[in-house]
Specification:
The protein is an alpha+beta fold. The protein has a single domain, classed as 2-Layer Sandwich (60s Ribosomal Protein L30, Chain: A). It has 5 helices and 6 strands. Helix 1 packs parallel to helix 3. The longest helix is centred in the N-terminal third of the chain and has 14 residues. The relative contact order is 0.24.
């Protein structure tokens, strides 16, 4: 892989909401929203961190979500999606790249994203060690056009830009 240019990749993830009698909380961008209905999945089902992990896999060509995350989740009971993202970030550094910018777009009828966007941006920026100004999140209700837009779950897309690591020592 050439380390002379910036690269971009896209990631996607979606999860249905758990049944209303399930008390699983909603996790988005590493933050827990106890008062909101959670998402189905073996892990915390954090669609934002999953979409970001998938985008990084688009650069490294190492799929984390799937066998690797399943082993961590099912065998080792690690359900925090930031652990999967940590592995993807290590793979990215091993490939000689670092994140420069992250842009998410989310489709969901609920929760209302406008009041929580800034907190989510701060959380993700902290997790990946980027300035908040390099992490963006936009959201749309989807105008009832899809099952997600009618309230069945949340769908997230993530586009990342990565740049060569400042230190060339990885390639020496």
């Amino acid at each position: 892989m050439s380390n002379k240019f910036s690269l971009s990749a896209i990631g996607q993830d979606s999860h249905r909401f758990v049944s209303t009698d399930d008390e699983k909380p909603l996790v988005l961008g590493g933050l827990t929203f106890e008062a909101e209905q959670g998402l189905e999945g073996n892990s915390d089902a954090d669609v934002l961190l999953h979409a970001l992990t998938n985008a990084i896999s688009g650069i490294t060509c190492i799929p984390i979500l799937g066998d690797i995350a399943d082993e961590l989740c099912l065998k080792h009971k690690i359900t925090d999606s930031s652990a999967y993202l940590e592995i993807a970030l290590a793979d990215l550094a091993e490939a000689g790249y670092e994140l420069a910018h992250i842009s998410f777009t989310v489709q969901a009828k609920k929760p209302k994203f406008l009041p929580i966007i800034e907190d989510i941006r701060k959380s993700i920026a902290k997790i990946v060690d980027l300035p908040k100004e390099h992490v963006m999140l936009t959201a749309t209700s989807g105008e009832n056009l899809t099952e997600v837009a009618r309230g069945a779950g949340i769908e997230a897309f993530c586009i990342i830009t990565v740049v060569p690591l400042e230190s060339e020592s990885y390639n020496s």
